[in-house]
Design brief:
Chain lengths: ~280, ~290
Amino acid sequence: MNNSIVSAAASLGALQQKLDVLADNIANVNTKGYKRKSTVFEDILTNLQPHDKTFELPGRRTPLGFTQGWGARVVGQQIDMTQGAMQQTDSDTDLAIAGNALFEVRSGGTLDSPRAFTRQGAFQLSPTGDGDRMLTTAEGYPVVASSGGADTFVRVPGNYELVVGADGSLTARSPDGNESVALGTLRLVQVNKPELLQAVADNLYGVPSDVNVQDVVANVAASPDQPGGVAIRQGFLEESNVSLGDEMADLVNVQRAYQLSARALSSGDQMSQMAANLRA
Amino acid sequence: MIRGLYTAAAGMIAEQRRHDTVTNNVANLNTPGYKGVNSVNRAFPEMLISLMGSPDDTKGTIGKLNTGVFAEESLINLGQGDLNETGRSQDLALVSDILVNGQAFDGSGKYVDANGNVSYQPQALFTVQNANGERRYTRDGGFRATADGMVVTSDGMRVLGTNGQPIRVEGSWDHVQVTADGRLINKETQQPLAGNPAFLLTEVSDPNQLVREGDGKYRYAGDANGLRQVQPGERVEIKQGYLERSNVDASQSMVDMMSALRAYEANQKMVQYYDRSLDRAVNDVGRI
């Protein structure tokens, strides 16, 4: 009956969701490789109250019928994949990507487990128990490389140090610098459809099970020589691409819109009260 | 007596509609491409009242009376919304300011000439296709790509190109540039993409013939002559990396909301006064 209350309540819910996403962004302003998310709004399906022919009166400008909207809703989230700033760390296992690409990891720890992707290059070398060390993310997901056309994990022997070229090539070098072992090339994927990537836990992105992974991402080789090409920087980390100023401006905007909708709700409530108190 | 009671009740309903419309506008302050709506009221048809039982019927006329009001139409304000930079290559904002000879339109796209005739500015919109293959129009240019490369609106309707077919882009959007007139070209080589795709921009000569369907889409209900493709040289421009914000004015909405609420209250009070008068008539007249 009281449409104002329904539309205002719907929009309060939608604004709350936007606020949640803003809070998520602000919380991750210092998370390496974090990509900001935004919410997409749409107005809710409108219904048309039909008018019969007698409503066709002189001076009327619109077709017959009276439309009624029901507020706004959130239709989805978008990941903004723009480049974050590079921060120098001088750590051998800190890698940053310049350009449109993601590192690939395996979420289950084995090569046949589901593929997942990340921009966060704060890797570490975890001991495997047999003297080697494996390149993993901070949470322990092994990083995927390709060696001779096959997917592998990166195993650095004993006390060797890891050297990563701008083209993603991986080499293990002995402490005296005389010996080096080629470990393949870092697997990089280019994101063709960022809207189909799904943010999962631990700063990883996955692809929903009903979507073909090949449609969303494609393997790409680093091309540091080309302008705008993908390049790997060892000893750097990519900062979050959240800009605190933009988020705060959005926050103020959402808060005021929330207040306004709350006013509309209470004003709709007052009208209901007046109708109820007609016969006081 | 009873006549006025119904008039006041009709006023309450009409103000309620106005309040609902304003609330919906406020709810869509953050919806890209949303266009504010005004509810327009109309008085019930006038009737002539005359004195009954008068010996001379010609002298018995009292005058004309309207016995109520109703929310007649929901008028869409298709004025341009502000542009908001997003930097996303699939976000397209339409800037439409189509000139018509001798008419200077105001911010809401209206022009009133010296004789009081009102005319409305033609508007350009993106053309999309719903699930049944029918054309719909939208100003919400926050598009995205599906897994097979189709360009769709945020709720999944396909966006049409100038050839009448849905637009499809192979691979990534990183290298796609949308020109001001809606063509899709390669950012580096400046060559058109395969198939020479371009967005179909439809110009609606009388925007009041657009019926809002929700989800940012409009249906065209006028005659087919009122639609045509935007011609080169017209003041219509696509801006890539921007979204058009909602054109709802928050402070104006607040004022409208309060005035609707108070007008509702005034009508409610009138009903109560009538009720009290009837109370007197029924219970007190003739009391001994």
